[in-house]
């Protein structure tokens, strides 16, 4: 019984730590790719509620990419939003944006 409990706790800790890593990866992506244009960072993320961020990031972030690809102001980011790298890593960005959305009550760290 103790071994079973230990295994369950280990899996729970692993699951929680891996989800935090995804948020961290999303934050890193945001800092590298998004702050160039969205300089207000924290206030930009808190601009939308969780539901809106989830909607923008569905289907590997295609709706968010479409907004950027239609905007001449975002011309610098077109290459990134067309890349496979964006589609592959969009899940981390989504998790970060949802975690710190307007209605989440969370504030991202300053690192």
From TrEMBL:
GO molecular function ontology, one term from the record: electron transfer activity
Gene3D superfamilies: Cytochrome c-like domain
Taxonomy, superkingdom: Bacteria
Signal peptide: 1-21
Stretches of the chain forming a coiled coil according to its record: none
Classification via InterPro entries: Cyt_c-like_dom_sf
Keywords: Signal
Protein name according to UniProt: Cytochrome C
Organism annotation: Sulfurimonas autotrophica (strain ATCC BAA-671 / DSM 16294 / JCM 11897 / OK10)
């Amino acid at each position: 019984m103790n071994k079973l409990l230990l295994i369950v706790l280990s899996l729970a800790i692993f699951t929680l730590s891996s989800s935090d890593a995804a948020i961290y990866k999303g934050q890193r992506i945001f800092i590298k790719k998004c702050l160039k244009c969205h300089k207000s960072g924290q206030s930009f993320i808190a601009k939308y509620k969780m539901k809106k961020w989830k909607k923008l990031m569905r289907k590997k972030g295609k709706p968010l990419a479409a907004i950027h690809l239609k905007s001449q102001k975002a011309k610098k980011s077109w290459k990134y939003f067309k890349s496979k790298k964006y589609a592959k890593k969009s899940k981390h960005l989504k998790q970060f944006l949802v975690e710190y959305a307007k209605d989440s009550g969370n504030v991202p760290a300053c690192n």
